[in-house]
Amino acid sequence: MTPKRRPRHHRPMSGSEAPPRRRVLALDVGSKRIGVAVSDPLGITAQGLETIQRQNKRKDWQALGELLKKYEVGEIVVGLPLRLSGAEGTQSEKMRRFADELHAQFGLSVHLWDERWTSTEANRLLRETSLSIEKRGKAVDRLAAVLILQSWLAARTSDQM
């Protein structure tokens, strides 16, 4: 019996042929600042980036666009502020509109993720450091974005198992 030949399109991909993994960007959006975090290319860890000081929509989009390009982002997670009960309110609706605009502006998948406890947890963690109150205030948005991203990545990983 003659062995069957494997069709060419079924040959295993070498490491250089595998499509590159894309990073995930997380945003903790406030009226004055946007906390930003990015995943590693494998989507395992999150690191905080420089907080964006909001100016106007055009400049905010420009700053976000630069980050998306620099870090080769494939999808975005936006913190969704819910009430303690889990119900949505005015701020939730604002974030839904922001996420829709973000998707329309950059064409990437945008995921909304419960952020109820992230700022509280970020403040608690920062109080335990030796940072000054001023430096803690500047770091809280970034840390909140890291916590949003870590939580989203963990949930995505557990869903894939």
Structural features:
5 strands; Nucleotidyltransferase, domain 5; disordered N terminus; five-stranded mixed β-sheet; 161 residues; alpha/beta
Strand-helix topology:
Blueprint: E1 23-29, E2 33-39, E3 46-53, H1 57-70, E4 73-80, H2 90-106, E5 109-114, H3 118-127, H4 133-160
Parallel strand pairs: 1-4, 4-5
Antiparallel strand pairs: 1-2, 2-3
Helix pairs in contact: 3-4
What is the succession of H and E elements? EEEHEHEHH
CATH class, anyone? Answer: Alpha Beta
Distance between the termini: 40 Å
Quote the beta fraction. Answer: 15-25%
Low-confidence spans: pLDDT under 50, at least 5 residues? 1-19
Q: What is the structural class?
A: alpha/beta
CATH fold-level topology: Nucleotidyltransferase, domain 5
Mean of all residue-level pLDDT scores: 84
Domains, number: 1
The major pleated sheet works out as: 5 strands, mixed
What's the number of extended β-strand segments?
5
Radius of gyration: 19 Å
Shape: globular
Q: Considering the protein shown, what is the CATH homologous superfamily? A: YqgF/RNase H-like domain
Strand order of the largest sheet: 3-2-1-4-5
Helicity level: 40-55%
What CATH architecture label applies? 2-Layer Sandwich
> How many DSSP H or I helices?
4
